[in-house]
Amino acid sequence: MEHKKIVIPSLSFFQNELKGEGVVKSRRTLGELAGIFENQDAYSQLPLDQLAYEVYSYLPEREGTPGGLYFGITQLYPGKVGDEYFMTKGHFHQQEDRSEYYWGLEGEGMLILMDRERNTWAERMMPGSLHYIPGGVAHRVANTGNSVLSFAACWPSDAGHNYEEIANKGFSARLVEVNGTPKLR
Ligand SMILES: O=P(O)(O)OC[C@H]1O[C@](O)(CO)[C@@H](O)[C@@H]1O
Ligand SMILES: [Fe+2]
């Protein structure tokens, strides 16, 4: 039986209708994710130009505008580096107290969160799951499925992204596949 591809209207609407009107598309290849995966041998076997994820961001305000909101849709592709799932870089916000919403649109994933005391936990992402990310909590998404994981994000236009701390110290736990199941260790 032919499986009809269900495309979430908000996703196709966003991609097709809003393209060009303040929508910025950014791409992250595996090459831009150097150092975030544990298994460097496995990482070095992968093509650096392979697309890991792309983000469609709707940015109606100038970066840093207090009180404004940004909206983004990320499409994170399935894949593994050793036993670790493809994942986003992860970040804290520059303005520590700025919170954010993520919600699942398509596919299966895990939202990995870490507070300032470096306690790390994870929430399952699926179509319709809603995730509140309080200020001061770093966030990263991993695709635990075999198809694209799409999720939307809404965050303050003055939140900023602090990638450095995660690039230097990572999260205190990694999401890996153990006997076919995602495990935080
Ligand atoms: O910015 P990262 O850590 O690469 O992850 C991408 C996701 O995070 C955001 O940049 C904002 O939190 C989203 O726009 C995007 O979906
Ligand atoms: Fe964020």
TrEMBL record:
Catalytic activity: alpha-D-glucose 6-phosphate = beta-D-fructose 6-phosphate
InterPro entries xrefs: G6P_isomerase_prok (IPR010551), RmlC-like_jellyroll (IPR014710), RmlC_Cupin_sf (IPR011051)
Leading EC class: isomerase
Pathway named in the protein's UniProt entry: Carbohydrate degradation; glycolysis; D-glyceraldehyde 3-phosphate and glycerone phosphate from D-glucose: step 2/4
Name of this chain's protein: glucose-6-phosphate isomerase
E.C. number(s) listed in UniProt: 5.3.1.9
A biological process from GO: glycolytic process
Homology family: Belongs to the archaeal-type GPI family.
UniProt keyword terms in alphabetical order: Gluconeogenesis, Glycolysis, Isomerase
Pfam families reported for this sequence: GPI (PF06560)
GO molecular-function term, one example from the UniProt record: glucose-6-phosphate isomerase activity
Residue ranges of domain Glucose-6-phosphate isomerase prokaryote in the record: 28-179
GO cellular component: cytoplasm
